[in-house]
Design a protein that fits this description.
2 domains; alpha+beta; 9 strands; 14 helices; elongated
């Protein structure tokens, strides 16, 4: 097993060039990458902790690695990850996901997250922003793309989408990604889209909002549309979600930019009502989609889009303390973010344990057998 795991990491990250000066390298790049994966898997969140894990688990690590030169210091770990090409490293992760997951299916949620403490005032470096693709069906991070410091998510999303096979998938993106070019790219790649619509698409947003206001005024009488409603009760609250969807093309004279959106087949209004005791809050939002006017499916896709917030971003902050990480030298923050995604995917493969992600990391630190089982996910995850 040890040979298989290390060989697989070499295969996935084989295109990552070692940026260090030849002849002055004591620790092979594979040692540094594997040690970091194992350290993060076992609860280490910084270079000092990862090096300490390595020194404490040297005998266990030696079954995987040649440790003639010992364990890399925390300075060596940090300085090496700072100069590893971030694009090559991210491609290594994508290669691994493509190798272990034959097919991406279901809802693929795209959303961004800022690594809050990755900024460096002294060097004039802003906080790093990463856009991730989350596979709701299998609960895995499918890929990630760093947002250029002087840009925004609009430029990063197309690069991330281009790395994925979207055939048969439903891609969900919040209002920032509701762009004609992004919709066209998803359609060209064989996927469907459900995009949140807000003021950044002023004319379309106004037209959709006014159309639904008219339809509600006449109670949708003689209006061809689809409707779906869900009611969830629990934890002292009631949540009611409703969705109305229709094909806008028969009404195209009322939409100023409808023909500019490739693949668009429906628009929908989603109304969410939350009741807690005597307090009721209501939120209404609008989406556009390449799906036909299927209210149930559109509501399902929109609701599950937020799985990326609850199951990825929140977990990274709570279980991995990502927002507290002060790793910021060179490309180290981006590369360590990729490691966290890889480790999260490994931990999510364990369906038998009822432990949360944070406690699974602790168990990996305590239980070498369990740790080895998690590493098997590098070779077979889906």
């Amino acid at each position: 097993m040890s040979i298989e795991v290390v060989a697989t990491i070499k295969e996935h990250f084989g295109e990552v060039r070692d940026p260090r000066q030849p002849g002055k390298v004591d620790h092979p790049l594979i040692n540094i990458i594997f040690l970091t994966i194992c350290g993060v898997l076992c609860g280490a969140d910084n270079w000092v902790a990862i090096a300490a894990f390595g020194n404490g688990q040297k005998e266990w690590l030696s079954q995987y690695l040649n440790l003639e030169k010992g364990i890399p210091s925390h300075d060596t770990l940090g300085s090496t990850f700072a100069v590893i090409d971030r694009e090559q490293f991210s491609q290594g992760f994508l290669g691994w996901m493509q190798a272990v997951c034959e097919l991406v299916a279901g809802i693929v949620a795209i959303d961004g997250k800022q690594l809050r403490r990755s900024y460096d005032k002294q060097d004039g470096k802003g906080a790093i922003h990463m856009v991730s693709a989350w596979g709701e069906a299998n609960g895995l991070v499918l890929g990630q793309q760093k947002v250029d410091e002087k840009s925004n998510e609009i430029t990063a999303i197309p690069l991330l989408l281009a790395a994925l096979d979207l055939t048969g998938c439903i891609v969900t993106i919040d209002a920032m990604g509701c762009q004609r070019e992004i919709a066209a790219q998803i359609d060209d790649q064989g996927g469907d889209y459900v995009l949140s619509l807000k003021g950044n698409q002023g004319q379309l947003h106004e037209d959709v909002q006014e159309m639904f206001a008219y339809f509600e005024k006449i109670a949708f009488v003689e209006i061809e549309h689809d409707y779906h409603k869900t009611v969830d009760k629990g934890h002292g609250r009631i949540e009611i979600r409703e969705c109305w969807a229709f094909n806008p093309h028969p009404w195209q004279e009322h939409f100023r930019t409808l023909n500019k959106w490739q693949g668009l087949q429906s628009v929908a209004m989603i109304r969410a009502q939350r009741i807690i005791g005597e307090k009721t809050t209501t939120e209404t939002r609008f989406v556009i989609s390449s799906l036909t006017a299927q209210a149930k499916l559109i509501l399902h896709a929109n609701r599950h889009h937020w799985g990326i917030e609850n199951k990825l971003h929140w977990v990274l902050d709570i279980a991995f303390a990502e927002d507290l990480s002060r790793v910021r030298q060179g490309y180290a923050a981006e590369n360590l973010a990729v490691i966290r995604h890889l480790v999260l995917n490994l931990l999510r493969q364990d369906k038998r344990s009822k432990l949360g992600i944070e406690n699974k990391r602790l168990r990996c630190g305590w239980d070498a057998k369990y740790r080895s089982q998690m590493l098997n996910g590098i070779t077979s995850l889906c």
